[in-house]
UniProtKB/TrEMBL annotation:
Keywords: Cell membrane, Glycoprotein, Membrane, Sugar transport, Transmembrane, Transmembrane helix, Transport
InterPro entries in the cross-refs: MFS_dom, MFS_sugar_transport-like, MFS_trans_sf, MFS_Trehalose_Transporter, Sugar/inositol_transpt, Sugar_transporter_CS
Protein name in UniProt: Major facilitator superfamily (MFS) profile domain-containing protein
A single cellular component GO annotation: plasma membrane
Ranges of residues in domain Major facilitator superfamily (MFS) profile: 19-444
GO MF annotation terms: transmembrane transporter activity
Subcellular locations according to the entry: Cell membrane
Topology in the lipid bilayer: Multi-pass membrane protein
Organism: Henosepilachna vigintioctopunctata
Transmembrane segments: 17-36, 90-108, 114-136, 148-166, 172-193, 255-277, 289-309, 321-342, 354-378, 390-409, 415-436
Length: 470
């Protein structure tokens, strides 16, 4: 455990912020992993920067091995999250990231090591992205869960910014040493953190759960919350922990459907496709600003908007922000598509700064709502009995949608017209805004059990209405 300064009895949220911040060191590594291909694959393709010849096709497989590893990591986490605990899963998830850094450092021996390194990094990322929202939601008090829940998203984006900057100054081997060092810093600091009180109560470890709450709430007076959590966990576990309970229990089924569609609508804004092709999209603005610096500005703004989103969501609610965000994305996408349509099919001359401004606005409104808050709700909405399995399904849906949207953008750009992708993504953003407004429950300020009860209330209302009709 940490020094006495972190065991004070002042009731502040300091230790919750401390735990989430340290856990988010791994989010930074995920951002470095996902952004690594942008600056370093071009270096691999240059024979003077790497001792082995890497063809374009071989380089494409280096990029693909990461998402393959994601799926393996998600399945692994599903199997181990409850059995080993949230904390132990965190510590273990750093191992593939550590191995990835080591293998890249020694890849001058054989290029095969890069493929294995990307696979290991993907496994670590899938593992981390599955357990992180669970841990954050389970240690957070309801009043600040939104603020804490967006920190992983902001740190993930920061990792992407950092690796793109590092690509200008650090070799592949030097960055690998940085990754290795970050892994050891995480392991040294997170090992002293308590496990989730929810997890400890699932295994009837009341003393451990009480100590966990003492640490996170910074108070000795946790008996009332402990009693409430114990009752909540027992009720949720009574619903069953088997995979079939994800579909047979109404509240689980509804939560799964809501989060699967939330992830789909999130990616159907086109955000990942635009991230991969940002420099190309900003070519028209290169007279004002070099594309790589434009990408840096956009990514930095995303980090800031992630923190702003957390504060606003705890004040105004998750759902209003997601509705506003999706609707605003729709407007930005229509304007951007119109820019490319006018540029290519008319004689009208538009200012060259349009793409930079429009994409910056898009990523701002995206991150302030649907970009950051889907991950927050993902950690809140599922019952403790079924959470690892549900998050695995949702994350695998996320991975599949990323592949589809990226391919749709590439096909539209190469074979139809780039504006088609923007108009298509705008339509889905509008559908997302309507769906969030109509179907999604508000989770702001509610305990995790209160969220479960709100999901069940819909089923009770339907049953009562059908009884009345009879």
């Amino acid at each position: 455990m940490f020094p006495n300064i972190f065991d004070a009895d002042d009731g502040s949220a300091l230790n919750e912020y401390l735990a989430v911040t340290i856990a988010c060191i791994l989010s930074i590594l995920c951002g470095i992993h996902i952004g690594w291909t942008s600056p370093y694959i071009p270096k691999l393709l240059k024979s003077e920067d790497y001792p082995f010849y890497i063809s374009n096709e071989a380089a494409s497989y280096i990029a693909i091995f990461g998402p393959i590893g994601d799926v393996i990591g998600e399945i692994t986490c599903m199997l181990t999250m409850d059995r080993l605990g949230r904390k132990n899963n965190f510590l273990l998830s750093a191992v593939p990231m550590l191995l990835s850094g080591i293998l890249i450092y020694f890849s001058y021996v054989s290029p095969l090591l890069i493929y294995i390194a990307r696979l290991m990094g993907g496994i670590g990322m899938g593992w981390i992205m599955s357990v992180l929202p669970v841990y954050v939601s389970e240690i957070s008090r309801p009043s600040i869960r939104g603020k804490l829940g967006v920190i992983p998203v902001a740190m993930y984006t920061f990792g992407i910014v950092a690796v793109n900057l590092a690509g200008n100054y650090l070799s592949m081997y030097h960055l690998a040493l940085v990754v290795i060092g970050i892994c050891f810093i995480f392991l040294a600091t997170f090992v002293g953190m308590p496990d989730s009180p929810y997890l400890l109560l699932m295994y009837d470890r009341q003393d451990g759960a009480e100590k966990s709450l003492n640490f996170f709430r910074r108070t000795r007076n946790v008996q009332r919350e402990l009693f409430s959590l114990e009752k909540d966990v027992k009720r949720q576990i009574s619903e069953g922990t088997h995979y079939k309970n994800l579909f047979t229990v109404y509240s689980n089924r509804k939560a799964l459907m809501l989060m699967v569609f939330a992830r789909i609508f999130q990616q159907l804004t086109g955000t990942t496709a635009f991230t991969m092709y940002n420099q190309e999209l900003l070519q028209d603005s290169k007279d004002i600003l070099e594309p790589q610096f434009g990408v840096f500005i956009i990514s930095f703004i995303q980090v800031l908007m992630g923190f702003v989103s957390g504060n606003l969501s705890d004040r105004f609610g998750r759902i209003p922000l997601m509705v506003y965000s999706s609707a605003s994305c729709c407007v930005c996408l229509i304007l951007t598509g119109s820019y490319f349509t006018i540029r290519d099919f008319s004689t009208i001359s538009l200012p060259s700064w349009f793409p930079l401004v429009l994409l910056t606005l898009f990523f701002m409104v995206f991150q302030i709502g649907i970009g950051a808050l889907v991950a927050v709700i993902l950690g809140e909405i599922f019952s403790a009995s079924i959470k690892p399995k549900a998050i695995c399904v949702v994350n695998m849906t996320f991975s599949g949608t990323v592949l589809l949207t990226t391919k749709f953008f590439q096909v539209s750009r190469d074979y139809i017209h780039i504006s088609v992708a923007f108009y298509g993504f705008a339509l889905f953003s509008l559908l997302g805004a309507i769906s969030f407004k109509v179907f999604y429950p508000e989770t702001k300020g509610k305990t995790l059990e209160e969220i479960q009860m709100s999901l069940k209330s819909d089923n009770r209302e339907k049953s009562e209405n059908s009884t009345i009709e009879k």
